[in-house]
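User: quick one, fold this
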Amino acid sequence: MNTSTDQKTLNLTLAVNQPPVLTDIVDPSSVPQEDALSLPNLLKAAGDSFRLDILRVLSEDSFGVLELCRIFATKQSGMSHHLKVLTNAGLLSTRREGNSIFYRRAYWLPESPLANLKQALFASIDHLPISESVQIQLHELERERSLASQQFFAENAHKFREQQDLIASYSVYAEHMAQLLNNTPLRSWNLALEVGPGEGEFLPVLALKFAQVVALDSSAEMLQKSREHIQKVRDTQQHNLRAVEFIHGDTHILAVKKVLADCIVVNMVLHHTPSPADIFQDLSKSLAPGGALLICDLCRHEQAWAREACGDLWQGFEPQDFSRWAEAATLIEGQSVYFALRNGFQIQLRQFFKPANFS
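Assistant:
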């Protein structure tokens, strides 16, 4: 591992044509004393190529210390030192997931005097290549997280509703999501995709509005429950439902299946997925220009029991998590709705659009 300030650091140009001087990024007259004192820590933290690698990997995901040690094949003591330096410099923040501490890139207020410098730094880091060995470890970690989630639902599909009701039953958010869908201006109502439909309760809502509906789930057991629910609705309620196509797999398979949806719905799914940021990327590619991505999920919470009881990989999300991942996936933010439940959990409904002129 090359830890010297090598060509990688020198390549951190902050502009394409003429690199700005420091005063173009930070106005000395506007920097309070405490921020001026933190500037050396920020520059020192970014002056090590290994720490740049860490920041690069944390671009769209969060990892624990041991996971980062595995990714970079390094000792925990050394990794902990680098994480401390980056955290003290305001470049990383931590969040607790059960008994583990996960690191991710820090957020900052736009009016922060060092915000422009940090933004320019992160933008430059995001253009650095990721080594093949690191990519292999990243893919392996994602695979293990995904398998853990799939195993949970395979073993607990028979009590899905009971576990769902511990946090937020379908009835709690169904009306809100249906209303958000009705208020979403779409260029076309041809094809809708629901990712992780659970027991399939929202599929009839989509099948009454769209000419075609696709249901995607990585759990074969849950996909079968969705099939059974659709058939039950057809048999008992005699609704004129459009045909629903069921696909077993994760969001990576959408490109293979050449799914191009006018609307994608993701209800209470992302906190079960190994890499939510990757989901945004996959779904953006499967969204038609002018199409909408509608998401319902948990706000950030501290109820660690949900990880074991409900198979949650993440304890909800900060609103800016979704905003940042959507922006990185070339999506435009629309409406947002937030509401609290009596059990202490909070729900966020988010709306994002693929630019109509996207090509």
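User: anything notable?
Assistant: The chain has two domains: 7-130, 158-353.
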